[in-house]
Amino acid sequence: VKISNIRNFSIIAHIDHGKSTLADRILEITGLVGDREKKAQYLDKMDLERERGITIKAQSVRIPYKAADGEDYILNLIDTPGHVDFSYEVSRSLAASDGALLVVDATQGVEAQTLANVFLALDNDLEIIPILNKIDLASADVDRVAREIEEIIGLDCSDPLMISAKTGLNVDQVLEAVVTQLPAPTGDPDKPLKALIFDSWYDSYQGVVVLFRILDGTIKKGDKIQIFSSKLVFDVTTLGVYSPEAMNVKSLSAGEVGFLCASMKELNDAPVGDTITLASDPVEEPFPGFQEVKAMVFCGLYPVEPSEYEPLKGALEKLQLNDTAFSYEPESSTALGFGFRCGFLGLLHMEIIQERLEREFQAKLIATAPSVIYQAKLINGKVLEIDNPSKMPEATELESLSEPYCRLEIHVPNEYVGSVLKLCEEKRGLQQDMRYLSSSRVIITYEVPFAEIMYDFFDKLKSHTKGYASLDYEIIDYRVSNLVKLDILINTEPVDAFSVIVHKDSAYAHGRSLALKLKRAIPRQMFEVVIQAAIARKIIAKERVAPFRKNVIAKCYGGDISRKRKLLEKQKEGKKRMKKMGNIEIPQEAFLVVLKAG
Ligand code: GDP
Ligand code: MG
User: Which DSSP string corresponds to 358-370?
Assistant: First the structure.
């Protein structure tokens, strides 16, 4: 096809507004996915994505389409994830697109991520087509939502596309709009090759698979390609497109999207954002790269059994191959033994990695409470980055402690403003701005310590606003705060995995609540367990777990032997997630209690 008949576009939306459903309908209407292979959310390939109904990894698919004008087009649809933690994936997908379909749920309206994604699209100079979705629902309010799109985003919405991605109503009009309203790519197939790597992953059969978009030039199977930043040269062994299954092609030219394999061993051989060129005729200027993503949330992951250390390490290595945003390094804990300190973009990212480890690698894990990175300025002038509270230097060595702050933008209906403000104030937030979008919707901006929103802020926000609030955040800077380390001692031994950093004003309350919650989480043992909370070695709270002997067999004395065996097994099962510390057994839940205290 001619370059003028190519359209490269993404679908962007706030989470749950219907991106993936629309992508499914498009694949169906164009006949790309027949009834037989029809599965809900075709593009969400990972099981986990399907179960959680969220799109984690962006996917791209080539769709042949005969338009109403009688011409044949190639549409390259790039699905994007919708959650804040994955906005780095969104920006990659957008860099490979020329236009975007902005899906807005007509029963909800413009939400925080709608706006955040529009800004990313505008940063990439994309043409944006607004689409009102879910008009099959009685609660759809297209007039109000069209007005919001005009007023808040500034897109013309006088004659909007109104669809139901679920039933397929008017989805044909979406395809026509893609052809008539989005620009064709520009680029010259005869210029030196310049292609943008917008995704790459590790496949156990083919090695590294690279997704790219060609800006200029032509690439053929067998070509010697060069990666711009590293100057490394590779032979293209496989060249193809996803349509929707992998399909080999002989060559691809300016404007096209495809994948290649080139005997690359690691993802770093083809970094996302880098430029591919030909070794024989390299381009002079690369595509401007992407911002590097930085892990913001850290936690320790430990095998339940020491013998599972090596398999866990192997599993982490494999996961890292497919997710450059995830990092890990060995660490050891006096309480938990040998394990790993792992870094994540955010909490959802962390949950997903933990779930994947358990699911794909059958790993049994103990996860410690997540922590942000603190900056510790020492009296001797040194500055340390602390990603593990137990590594915090003694108070006597410290000059000051800084913590990351983020800017929160919360969209909320009028009637919940009071409870949102209250929640933000409780989280040590500083109000920056409050704007009325319309007479009934408000955008509230706060600067809040990231640690305060890290754990349950999102859930709390949802429950305080009956689910109506939406939020977006970005890390802005580090600020000096009055922070202290809170330690937990069990039978007078400090347990490093329980240490947390908290604000001084709430440290006493936090310590007391933590000790109490641990008391409830730690089962009775054969001897007394004493739990203490301490700040700078000063004990501020103390709880006891009374001794108890749990004798399961005694209960069914005289019963049949198979029942006894079952009970024993059940008891063993219950112990699996227990970590033995000295002679005390501590269940996994106890390590998470740390999060919920205070
Ligand atoms: P995404 O997070 O933007 O990818 O949203 P999904 O495509 O996963 O859709 C979220 C939920 O909305 C799912 O339960 C869909 O079935 C539902 N949904 C999507 N489009 C429509 C629609 O047009 N009408 C109705 N009634 N539900 C829809
Ligand atoms: Mg989705």
Answer: HHHS---EEEPPP
